[in-house]
Amino acid sequence: MKPTYETYDILAQVYNMRGIDCTYTDRTKDALNYYRQSCQFAQMSRDREKMIDLYINIADSYNSQGAFVNGIIYYQKALLLSDSLRQKNELKAPIFFGLGQTYIRIRNFSDAKNYLDRAEKSYQQLQPSEQFILLNTFGNLYYEQKNYKAALPYFQKAYQLSEKDQQMASQKNIVLLNLSDI
Predict the structure, then answer these.
(1) In what helix (H) or strand (E) does residue 43 lie, and over which residues does it extend?
(2) Residue 26: helix, strand or coil by DSSP?
(3) HSE-CB for 148 with a 13 A CA cutoff
(4) pLDDT band for position 87 (50/70/90)?
(5) Alpha-carbon distance 144 to 159, whole Å?
(6) Cβ–Cβ contacts within 10 Å for residue 64, how many?
(7) What is the pTM of this model?
(8) Rounded Cα gap, residues 101 and 82, in angstroms
(9) Using 50, 70 and 90 to split pLDDT, how confident is the model at 98?
């Protein structure tokens, strides 16, 4: 009996969850392999939207290993697919954050700002956790350029946002560390 699209969808979900487990247990190479396998199953399931999240997971895995070029390639794949599916800008925000953060790490500040600006256009539609990421990443962008005066208001806004939500305790600690560096 030939597997159905639903079977492939379930397999894609299982391998993605395995990848996530490996990510949280600091087994990034194993995570990358599971995400790749999940991608293969998702392609067979024909769920193109799921591919976007998987490409983001793969990009994140590459970045955690310091393979930033590969990370950018997979974020770009996610963005291309998202564009072809005509997704709204706020659904692309995690891609823009990832690209912005990666470009900061390789010190390409103009491309980082470009992608963060694109995410900022949907600020009001973002979830609070996504708003925090955007604000903190903007702060990091300016901090890395030694423009502390520009970084400070972003970190302050991120802190204020984290104060409103008890679920954001770890984010609050991150931004407090960032504020202490300024």
Answers:
(1) helix 28-45
(2) coil
(3) 5
(4) confident
(5) 19
(6) 15
(7) 0.88
(8) 19
(9) very high
Residue found under tokens 């990358």: 32
Output the six-digit token pair for 145. Answer: 């350029």
Query: Would you say residue 172 has pLDDT above 90?
Result: no
CB 28 within 8 A of CB 67: no
Which pair of tokens denotes residue 52?
């976007």
Tokens of 163: 């104060």
Beta carbons of 123 and 130 less than 8 angstroms apart: no
State the residue for tokens 């970190």.
155
Closest Cα to residue 122, out of 105, 103, 97?
97
Token representation of residue 79: 């963005």
**Residue 50 structure tokens:** 């799921």
Please, are residues 126 and 91 in contact by the beta-carbon 8 Å criterion?
no
